[in-house]
Amino acid sequence: MLLPSSRPAPREPPTMDGVGSFGAGRAGSTMDPITFAKQPQTILRVLTWIFSLVVFASIVNEGYVNIGSERLHCVFNKNSDACNYGVFVGLVGLLACSFFFLLDYKFSSISSVKDRKKAVMLEIGFSGFWTFLYFVSFCFLANQWSQTTADELPLNQGADAARAAIAFSFFSIITWAGLTVRAIQKYLLGTDMTLFTTEHLDGGAPTQPYPSNSPGGGTTETTETYQSPPFTENNAAPTYQVDLHFSRPVC
């Protein structure tokens, strides 16, 4: 006789609805584009990208002028270091914004908690450092512009580009600082470890439970096992008693 299997049903992985690891949705999900566009972090990221583009383009296009010679001079007091620094900060900030913008969009699809933590820590470090560099850029460009005389810029050449680079360097300080704060909040939010199985911690796919035939479609756990031993002590062979008393024949 076949006995019912005593193997317990696999445990169903915990649900991850709502807020998941580091403020993102459940692991393995994809972000809705409309919801993603309305997030404050996305708005700050777009503004930061625009500000970095303005700083970079202003100096590259009109940040150099030639005065009575073919040699180009930086509009910031003829200090080429000021122009080079502004171009560097603007260009790298522009590329970094593009990278983190893509990372924000793909963040919910990262199933590993460790990888999410690394991404958030990278954003905190870079955003905080670039906030400092833009503060230096604002102070450096503003100082060099204040020392620039009208004779160095005939017909006010490049003045608008210089002012734009200084102004948007200041705006970039605010936006990069805002991104740093948002990243710190995301890190402090951390993760609810009960939302993830061991496979999620290791970056693997969660184990799927066995399908159930119940109408609800959910899985059920077997709490009782039915195991009957084939032989017991009480199952003794039947005994037969012979009646030795015979009736006498009637004469």
From TrEMBL:
<feature type="transmembrane region" description="Helical">
    <location>
        <begin position="46"/>
        <end position="65"/>
    </location>
</feature>
<feature type="domain" description="MARVEL">
    <location>
        <begin position="36"/>
        <end position="188"/>
    </location>
</feature>
<feature type="transmembrane region" description="Helical">
    <location>
        <begin position="165"/>
        <end position="184"/>
    </location>
</feature>
<keyword id="KW-0812">Transmembrane</keyword>
<protein>
    <recommendedName>
        <fullName>Synaptogyrin</fullName>
    </recommendedName>
</protein>
<feature type="transmembrane region" description="Helical">
    <location>
        <begin position="85"/>
        <end position="103"/>
    </location>
</feature>
<dbReference type="GO" id="GO:0031594">
    <property type="term" value="C:neuromuscular junction"/>
</dbReference>
<keyword id="KW-0472">Membrane</keyword>
<dbReference type="Pfam" id="PF01284">
    <property type="entry name" value="MARVEL"/>
</dbReference>
<comment type="similarity">
    <text>Belongs to the synaptogyrin family.</text>
</comment>
<feature type="compositionally biased region" description="Polar residues">
    <location>
        <begin position="226"/>
        <end position="238"/>
    </location>
</feature>
<dbReference type="InterPro" id="IPR008253">
    <property type="entry name" value="Marvel"/>
</dbReference>
<dbReference type="GO" id="GO:0030672">
    <property type="term" value="C:synaptic vesicle membrane"/>
</dbReference>
<feature type="region of interest" description="Disordered">
    <location>
        <begin position="202"/>
        <end position="238"/>
    </location>
</feature>
<feature type="transmembrane region" description="Helical">
    <location>
        <begin position="124"/>
        <end position="145"/>
    </location>
</feature>
<keyword id="KW-1133">Transmembrane helix</keyword>
<dbReference type="InterPro" id="IPR016579">
    <property type="entry name" value="Synaptogyrin"/>
</dbReference>
